[in-house]
From TrEMBL:
<feature type="transmembrane region" description="Helical">
    <location>
        <begin position="135"/>
        <end position="154"/>
    </location>
</feature>
<dbReference type="InterPro" id="IPR011701">
    <property type="entry name" value="MFS"/>
</dbReference>
<feature type="transmembrane region" description="Helical">
    <location>
        <begin position="317"/>
        <end position="336"/>
    </location>
</feature>
<keyword id="KW-0472">Membrane</keyword>
<keyword id="KW-0812">Transmembrane</keyword>
<keyword id="KW-0813">Transport</keyword>
<feature type="transmembrane region" description="Helical">
    <location>
        <begin position="277"/>
        <end position="297"/>
    </location>
</feature>
<feature type="transmembrane region" description="Helical">
    <location>
        <begin position="408"/>
        <end position="434"/>
    </location>
</feature>
<feature type="transmembrane region" description="Helical">
    <location>
        <begin position="209"/>
        <end position="232"/>
    </location>
</feature>
<feature type="transmembrane region" description="Helical">
    <location>
        <begin position="449"/>
        <end position="470"/>
    </location>
</feature>
<feature type="transmembrane region" description="Helical">
    <location>
        <begin position="348"/>
        <end position="367"/>
    </location>
</feature>
<feature type="transmembrane region" description="Helical">
    <location>
        <begin position="39"/>
        <end position="64"/>
    </location>
</feature>
<feature type="transmembrane region" description="Helical">
    <location>
        <begin position="76"/>
        <end position="98"/>
    </location>
</feature>
<feature type="transmembrane region" description="Helical">
    <location>
        <begin position="166"/>
        <end position="189"/>
    </location>
</feature>
<feature type="transmembrane region" description="Helical">
    <location>
        <begin position="373"/>
        <end position="396"/>
    </location>
</feature>
<protein>
    <recommendedName>
        <fullName>Major facilitator superfamily (MFS) profile domain-containing protein</fullName>
    </recommendedName>
</protein>
<feature type="transmembrane region" description="Helical">
    <location>
        <begin position="110"/>
        <end position="129"/>
    </location>
</feature>
Amino acid sequence: MGEEAPPTPPATSLYVDGCPGCAIERKKEINKGIPYKELLFVAATTIASALPISSLFPFLYYMIEDLHVAKTEQDIGLYAGFLGASYFVGRFLASLFWGVVADRIGRKPVIVFSIFSVVIFNTLFGVSMKYWMAITTRLVLGALNGMLAPIKAYSIEICRPEHHALGLSVVSTAWGIGLIVGPSIGGYLARPVQQYPGMFSDKSIFGRFPYLLPCLCISLFAVVVLVSCIWLPETLHKHKNIGNNEIEMLSDPGTPRTEDIHGGKNLYKNWPLMSSIIAYCIFTLHDTAYSEILSLWTISDRKYGGLSFSSKEVGQLLAVAGAGLIVYQLFIYRPIHKFLGCVNSCRASCALSIPLIASFPFMTHLSGYRLGLALYFAAIAKAALGMTILTGTSLLQNYAVPQSQRGAANGIAATAMSFFKAIGPAGAGALFSWAQKRQHAAFFPGDQMVFFVLNIVQCIGLVVTFKPFLAVPEHYDLK
């Protein structure tokens, strides 16, 4: 039915003065409750990092039009896909580096630098007047924003073992909220002259740069988070003049002792780690492609199989999905995880997603409140199911390695995932453009083909959650 929490073997309470990791361990030993303050920091920094990733989706269609790079309307999706993929290409090139840095100098410096890069390069993206500038700023932002690997390690290290699922679910939920609220910000604030002519004039800075306002709002939020990072405690153990045996005994005594299982083992030969990363990559590929397709599909004209939504309506849809995701994480996810465990909750969520995705193209036959109810319910359910899957696979990754390798392990996961996420928008954009040109095909015409391909990827993901494709860490009992 469910999975047992990883056992916590007895450990010697030996701490080193001045070591931030030891200070956190001492605090966890004294305070056995949930570290709400630290988790609040985790949520805020994760949202600040995630907001820029998808904030461009609602206005991406219009931005490509304004940059005058697409020769025909049907080609817009192709150029939009390349622009959406550029961030993930940058992250693919640098994620492993940032994971190793986080293991060497600490989690906090990498997190702080990542938020700083959001402030600078997200703002520069908002003033892009050329296609090459837009792609370059997104590429550099992806390369310098290396927070995903250390923040996952951090969320595990600030929690006692019984709260590990909560810690990583905060990261997954905050990330999901950022990926959903980001588009709502983009949808409501992009092209303010057209959307709010009484408040903004053509001669204002927002008239010259129609996509600066949403980027600027996100950057200002990142500034606030950057200042709050002053109070962010470090969790990495830093010991000087102490024997290796004692360091191993000191290292993260409150977490599963994976040193006894994988001690010093090459991460690439750690099959429980690599198999969970493979599953994680497939699901992130699916989620990224789904996010881009949902925005392009809802905005595109009904004659091409879309819904003819405005960017504001898309933003509203994604904002409601984000609110639903918060409710799910606070009140529903933990009981589900406790009952089913990581693996079974992933399998169930993946299986439920398949008929849900298949229903999207048939919503074009609805209108009015019936369309609203169906679309909003589907968006909320898909966000919740996606968060459950990604949290479960992330937990398996972190349980497969000791603390000393956790940053590097998450760096490998972020590198591989970024490659697949780069394929996602580019592939989704190309697929969407191709599908729009085959509205009267006999086999899955138009948008039906788009969602059919999404379901193929989801089915592959479901298969890899079973043996022999997925290996669960030896110390993590699966019933």
